[in-house]
Model the fold of this input.
Amino acid sequence: MTTVAVTGSASGIGAACAARLGAGGTRVIGIDRHRADVIADLGTEGGREEACRAVARLCGGRLDGLVTCAGLAGAPDRPGSVLASVNYFGTVGMLTGLRPLLADGTSPAAVAVSSNSATIQPGVPSAVVRACLAGDEPGARRLADDFGSLATYPATKLALAHWIRRQATGANWIGSGIRLNAVAPGMVDTPLVAEGRADPVVGPLLESFPIPVGRPGRPEEIAALVDLLLGPEGGFFCGSVLLVDGGSEALLRPTDWPSPWSSDDGPAADGDAKACSRETPSGRTG
Ligand code: NAI
Done:
């Protein structure tokens, strides 16, 4: 039987992923702060380590899939540091911590949840993105508190998308047979969005958010894409960040992507040709 770990499994998109995978016969190991097989605070290093140990015990050392949904939205009274630690370091910590179990799984794959806010919210603080990608959690937390959680949210999701693309093609991931991808949802009706709607500052912004399909997404629609990416029919996805946002990004930035590769750009990925030969990783963090 296939075993997949899902973070943020108690609510919203994570709960929809767990339900869909479970209905398809997959054994799901849910990880969350409450109502889960593994109770952990992924915003702390100790919580991440304990969660990884617990998952290893529950799956017997072999994991076939991982979906990282645990995350928090920005809110006027929520410190940015919490988002840096949960959304970015919590996610990357679980991906790296559970990667060895995935390497021993069958046709293993991991899917992280980024966000279309990474590319459509103006004013993303690049210093937070850089600190995240440098692995500097204390520095990212300090900067995130300076910028506040509303600006930090898309920074954590942009950093995560870039981390995925850099790592996916390297020795530790596809070089070890593990496909790594991300989805980038637009507004999806979940408790996270309900919290935003109830806020006097964020609520009106969400109400005016343009969604060409005419409605927010449903958690089940994101879960269907995650299921595809995890399974055999998703076997050619590697390092993809898939927008699933009802057309918001296409509406706001119709010609920014695809963009041509100008001749002076060089490869920026951590991946290289060696990845394909499954060499022993050297000094990679992921
Ligand atoms: P949600 O609030 O319904 O679920 C998030 C889950 O993460 C909750 O069960 C919560 O307990 C868990 N969680 C939060 N902090 C945690 C921590 N420190 N340790 C362990 N678990 C923790 O939210 P939703 O909407 O399902 O979000 C899931 C992911 O999708 C998040 O990463 C979010 O940023 C992302 N996303 C959501 C969008 C939306 O419109 N709902 C849009 C784009 C991305």
Summary: The mean pLDDT is 93.
